[in-house]
Write a structure and sequence with these properties.
Elements: E1 6-7, E2 14-15, E3 35-37, E4 40-47, E5 50-53, H1 60-74, H2 80-97, H3 104-119, H4 123-128, H5 130-138, H6 140-149, E6 157-163, H7 165-168, H8 176-184, H9 188-196, H10 202-208, H11 212-215, H12 228-241, E7 257-261, H13 265-276, E8 280-284, H14 293-296, H15 305-317, E9 321-323, H16 334-340, E10 343-346, E11 352-353, H17 371-379, E12 390-394, H18 398-409, E13 414-419, H19 430-438, E14 442-445, E15 447-455, E16 458-472, E17 478-482, E18 488-491, E19 494-497, E20 501-502, E21 536-538, H20 541-544, H21 549-567, H22 576-587, E22 608-609, H23 612-615, E23 623-624, H24 628-635, E24 643-649
Parallel strand pairs: 7-8, 7-10, 8-9, 10-21, 12-13, 12-19, 13-14
Antiparallel strand pairs: 1-2, 1-5, 3-4, 4-5, 4-24, 6-24, 11-20, 15-16, 16-17, 16-18, 22-23
Length: 650
């Protein structure tokens, strides 16, 4: 990558304007991709933390003018300095680039920008004009020349977008600061409507989302992150409690038909967003209920089944037909779906289990039950193996944690989890691990199964070997290495491998022509979700392999946008919004080392939970949602950290 001519990002000044290109220094705190979209070169970036300039042809004065206009257009108008001041600055800069500027404008712009920065109540004002102050200081001759010469600036090509640290990592692209702010203003219905612009599963995500947003929350730089997930649950529950039933706006019918395979998070999200665009959508689901792995793989104490049902109702109310107990490949052929529809979306989940690769797992022993099957039986109201009381689960993800926690709830008395790495490397949600610990699950870290022990065709134990951590592997985690001679046995009636899940693509025949990867997932274009067959799209676990629910839902929505473009005969490509998300991901919107200069002390609110000894015996929901006052107080902790980023394109 070419190093910039100038960079001031995060107060790191790199000025290469008088340096040959080969000798330019590289900034340490930012890397800007060379292209925005194929063929669109990024010549400069201007944003909340400074300026990065790659091309001397960029008119920095005009870019500042355009950036000020963007700040003014995004100002919420709730505080006087930003609302009025940004408009005045934008007006003065516009006059400069149109040949009507005056010398006194420059000091006035500087003074007013400082006043806005110091007096604004949110980050639009606090950071929005920072790059303009930098430009006035570091490119003053350009501003002076523009005023003295009185020439109109040559118009460049610019694009801008607004983001926030939390929103930038949300797979569904939620406008988090807005929906949180609406909670603080007691606009609960409006908050839920904001959420539903991007997801049809607010109540589900409000319970089981893995919260990447909270890991990117600037409030954590002061004390603790905002309880973003639980506020989402609050507004979803509020609608149920108050029996509100907002109407779904009827869309103009397109006359196009789309088949969606799978009623899991990806399929429901895709179907919902297609219906809102006027397409006739039919979902084919082999299970008797909606939710896919969310329904049969997540226990009711975490995600009550009625919540999923109500969210599926919202999808149906949007105009989607859901056909349950219909298995594609058995009840209807994939080829027939293609013939009868203008497009097909594949959104099947990872319902299969990966083998452990240990001696005895292929012997058909009673008591050897894959994790997904174990949870499926439990979620259908069955004890997977009534004679067994001792349980060993192998794995470190959320499925493994769900298996051990569910075991107590069906009467198992001795519950163990075996994981080959240490607790620090476990991929499961730390909150779920803590809950399992409180419920007295026995954790055996740095252990790995080597052999299943059985008698008379029944599991009686599992031989394990101690592990130690070596060098990092491809995942970045330290590779577990067996310790010779450290074998030991754990007695058990039930052994549950939960080390990974597999996608079943057997419903696709060779003649269907849908290519698969070497991992037996559907091969797609990452940016467009297009498969090897025109008109066939796919996303979710069947593309990525087993992943978190929020990502499946997010890609389902994005796939719907691409299918809509395809049905209208347009060019299917990454949208400007998606390109900005990629750009912001590369730049990194959140700086965990940022010093905010704000006094904290108001800690994050947590949901009330049943006592561990009580909750481990019930499948009733174990967490109680926020009360109204608690939700408002929590939402008021939000700093409204919006950021504006603008690029100059060549």
């Amino acid at each position: 990558m070419v190093n910039p001519i100038f960079s001031s990002w995060q107060e790191e000044l790199v000025d290469n304007r008088k340096v040959a290109e080969k000798d330019r220094q590289a900034p340490r705190k930012i890397q800007v991709p060379s292209e925005f979209r194929p063929g669109e070169r990024i010549k400069a970036f201007m944003g909340w933390d400074g300026i990065v300039l790659y091309d001397a042809d960029v008119d920095i004065v005009e870019m500042c003018s355009r950036y000020a206009a963007a700040v003014q257009s995004e100002s919420c108008g709730k505080c006087f300095p930003c609302r009025v001041g940004s408009r005045i600055i934008a007006d003065w800069l516009h006059k400069i680039v149109t040949g009507e500027g005056k010398t006194e404008y420059l000091q006035k712009i500087r003074d007013l920008a400082i006043n806005i920065r110091d007096g604004a109540l949110c980050s639009i004002g606090q950071t929005g004009l920072r790059p303009i102050l930098t430009a006035l200081d570091r490119f003053s001759p350009a501003f002076t020349a523009a005023i003295e010469e009185g020439k109109k600036s040559k118009e460049g090509k610019y694009r801008y977008a607004i983001t926030a640290p939390c929103s930038s990592v949300c797979p569904t692209g939620l406008d988090i600061p807005t929906y949180v702010e609406e909670v603080s203003e007691q606009q609960f219905a409006e908050s839920l409507a904001t959420i539903r612009l991007n997801t049809c599963m607010a109540g589900t995500l409000g319970r089981v989302c893995v919260r990447p947003c909270e890991s990117n929350c600037r409030r954590a730089n002061i004390d603790e992150s905002i309880a973003i997930k639980h506020l989402k649950r609050f507004v979803a529950d509020d609608e149920i409690e108050k029996r509100r039933h907002p109407e779904t706006a009827a869309a103009t019918k397109s006359g196009k038909k789309v088949a969606v395979i799978g009623a899991g998070p990806a399929g429901l999200s895709c179907a919902y967003n297609l219906a809102l665009r006027g397409h006739q959508v039919t979902v084919f689901e082999k299970l008797p209920e909606p939710g896919g792995m969310a329904a049969v793989g997540i226990p009711d104490y975490r995600l009550p089944r009625p919540i999923l049902g109500q969210e599926a109702d919202r999808v149906r109310e949007a105009g989607v037909e859901i056909r349950y107990n219909v298995e594609v490949g058995r009840d209807v052929k994939f080829a027939d779906l293609r013939k009868g529809h203008d497009a097909v979306f594949i959104g099947v989940g990872a319902h299969g289990s990966s083998p452990m690769g240990v001696e005895g797992e292929d012997k058909g022993y009673s008591g050897f039950i894959p994790g997904v099957k174990y949870l499926l039986d439990i979620n259908q109201g069955k004890d997977p193996y009534p004679p067994g009381k001792k349980v060993v689960v192998v794995g470190g993800g959320n499925v493994a944690i769900d298996c051990v926690r569910s075991s107590f709830r069906i009467g198992k008395t001795d519950v163990n989890l075996v994981y080959r790495r240490s607790k620090a490397e476990m991929p499961a949600d730390p909150v779920e691990i803590q809950d399992a610990e409180e419920e007295k699950v026995k954790f055996h870290y740095l252990c790995n199964p080597t052999r299943i022990i059985a008698a008379n065709g029944q599991v009686t134990g599992v031989e394990c070997i101690r592990m130690e951590l070596g060098e990092p592997d491809q995942s970045g985690r330290r590779r577990p290495v067996p310790v010779p001679g450290s074998e030991f046995v754990i007695e058990t009636d039930i052994l549950i491998p939960a080390i990974g899940q597999k996608v079943d693509l057997s419903f696709l025949e060779e003649k269907d022509g849908v290519e698969a990867t070497k991992w037996n997932t559907v091969a797609t274009d990452e940016a467009t979700f297009v498969t090897s067959q025109a008109g066939v799209f796919a996303s979710g676990d069947c593309v990525t392999g087993p992943d978190v629910l929020v990502r499946a839902g997010g890609t389902g929505k994005r796939a719907a946008e691409k299918i809509d473009i395809f049905l209208q005969g347009g060019k299917v490509e990454a949208s400007v919004e998606e390109c900005f998300r990629s750009l912001f991901a590369a730049i990194k919107v959140y700086d965990k080392n940022e010093q905010l200069g704000v006094i904290g002390g108001k800690k994050k609110a947590h949901l009330a939970m049943l006592d561990a000894e009580d909750r481990k015996l019930t499948f009733e929901e174990v967490e109680e949602g926020f009360k109204v006052n608690a939700a408002i107080d929590e939402a008021e902790r939000c700093l409204r950290c919006y950021r504006i980023g603008m690029i100059a394109l060549g």
